[in-house]
Design a protein that fits this description.
Blueprint (H helix, E strand, L loop, with lengths): L8 E5 L1 E5 L2 E5 L2 H10 L3 E5 L8 H7 L2 E4 L24 H16 L4 E4 L1 H9 L4 E2 L19 H4 L4 E5 L4 H6 L3 E4 L6 E2 L6 E7 L4 E6 L6 E4 L11 H21 L4
Parallel strand pairs: 1-4, 1-5, 5-6, 6-13
Antiparallel strand pairs: 2-3, 7-10, 8-9, 8-11, 11-12, 12-13
Length: 257
């Protein structure tokens, strides 16, 4: 009897958004499609109800985890600050899930790819801090998108980043420099303990990181490689490397025939 070859399962923690009169648990289409097409995995959206979820059960079914970008910011109470701009959205339910999930995933050797807000979540989970308004920090550039522009311009190439020589990211994309988009108001201030910077913008802002002693694939990036990923070889290389790591975990955990 022939069996269908399964794909690795990638968990995607949801955002909580108010749509009309009701809150919904949602994940962006572009992230879901990047997991399915570029990483070759099965995306599974996880609701942000951390008090009702068993993290160990989730990790037992996971071959990988993708932490997405989001409109909301990580609540600054998680890195010892008060809210700088009350008009900006927060998502405490997502914080409660992802900040717990990051450390657990590393300990369970589950591959992790973190994008934009997810990248910032990894830093905070390891005790790091964030600039709540990068554009207000002396010496740093304005990394926000031009909101009046079309979506293609907003997510188009914005500035180069320098990749650390012999670093994980440099090996994945096969280059020491690459162009990235830039759609974030917050950014890393103090790098978390046990994290290693993998790339920098020209103003010195950390643009990519990894967990130094993680036994599985871990990579966080400040930009959005999911955007038109199938048309960008370097973005695609990131998702392929993540997908390969997920398949490796899946094979290691499959029962013998």
């Amino acid at each position: 009897m022939m069996t269908t070859k399964r794909k690795p399962v990638v968990l995607i923690p949801a955002d909580v958004k108010q749509l009309g009169e009701h809150p919904f648990h949602v994940a962006g289409h572009k992230y879901i499609m990047a997991v399915a097409e570029a990483a070759g995995a099965l995306p599974l959206v996880i609701p942000a109800i951390s008090n009702l979820l068993d993290i160990d059960v989730l990790l037992a079914m996971a071959d990988g985890i993708l932490l997405t970008g989001a409109v909301s910011n990580v609540h600054p109470s998680h890195f010892g600050q008060t809210v700088h701009n009350p008009s900006l959205p927060l998502d405490p339910a997502r914080d409660a899930l992802t900040l717990k999930l990051v450390q657990a995933a590393i300990n369970a050797e589950v591959p992790l790819l973190a994008i934009c807000r997810g990248f910032q979540e990894v830093n905070v989970a390891f005790g790091g801090s964030l600039h709540q308004a990068v554009h207000e920090v002396s010496g740093l550039n304005d990394h926000r998108e031009a909101k009046e522009s079309t979506i293609d311009i907003q997510y188009g190439e914005s500035h180069p980043i320098d990749l650390v020589a012999s670093g994980q990211l440099a090996q994945i994309v096969g280059a020491r420099q690459m162009m990235v988009n830039s759609i974030h108001g917050q950014g890393i201030d103090k790098l978390g303990a046990g994290l290693v910077a993998e790339a920098f913008a020209s103003d010195g802002l950390v643009e990519a990181l990894r967990v130094e002693h993680a036994k599985a694939f871990t990579l966080g990036v400040q930009w959005h490689p999911e955007w038109k990923v199938m048309e960008n070889p370097q973005y695609l290389a990131i998702f392929k490397a993540f997908g390969d790591a997920c398949r490796l975990r899946m094979r290691r955990h499959e029962p013998p025939d």
